[in-house]
Design a protein that fits this description.
Largest sheet: none
Strand content: under 5%
Shape: globular
Low-confidence stretches: none
Helix content: 55-70%
Distance between the termini: 29 Å
Number of strands: 0
């Protein structure tokens, strides 16, 4: 069971940086494959919820196209998110 203190510390780390999730879960042993997986999952999350890119200040550069988009809440969009 995780303690409340450990949970809060991990949550703070994850919210501090876009790749904080990968840093919190991946030990510093150089496992680039797992880090790449977390980065891909994070990017897919931004694609599904473009508002998150704006909220996190990541709607620049390669993600600039996300600035003008909203989440797809249609039946097809919800089905696609479930399939993913």
């Amino acid at each position: 069971m995780i303690s409340r203190r450990a949970f809060v510390a991990t949550a703070a780390l994850c919210s501090a940086t876009p790749t904080g999730i990968a840093r919190a879960l991946v030990p510093d042993d150089g496992d680039a494959g797992l880090t790449a997986l977390f980065d891909r999952l994070f990017q897919q999350g931004l694609e599904r919820r473009p508002e998150s890119a704006t909220l996190l200040g990541l709607d620049k550069g390669a993600n600039a196209g996300l600035k003008a988009r909203l989440s797809d809440e249609s039946a097809a969009g919800i089905a696609a998110a479930r399939a993913l």
